[in-house]
Design a protein that fits this description.
4 helices
Length: 91
């Protein structure tokens, strides 16, 4: 297993009640508060990123997607306008 160097710091301020809760949870998990917060933050961050970057399709939708790739629509004025808008707003 490769261990990555921890070369940056993250400073977090919280109220005393939150700190007590984190201390207790970290103790139950047999790790430091830093390890507990980092591990849980990373797991949640991975979940959030996955939710925003992944697309899950049903079998029917996937088949329709593949069909659309195999038989693209004919170019028409509406499609040309959509491509122009896209080119203008997305770099």
């Amino acid at each position: 297993m490769t261990t990555l160097a921890k070369d940056t710091r993250l400073h977090i301020r919280c109220d005393q009640e939150t700190r007590r809760l984190l201390d207790k949870a970290a103790a139950y998990a047999h790790m430091s508060v830093s390890e507990f917060v980092l591990r849980n933050a990373v797991e949640h961050a991975q979940s959030v990123v996955q939710t925003h970057e992944a697309i899950t399709l049903s079998q029917d939708d996937f088949a329709a997607f593949l069909d659309a790739l195999d038989t693209p629509p004919q170019v028409n004025p509406a499609l040309q306008r959509a491509f122009a808008r896209h080119a203008k707003h997305v770099q």
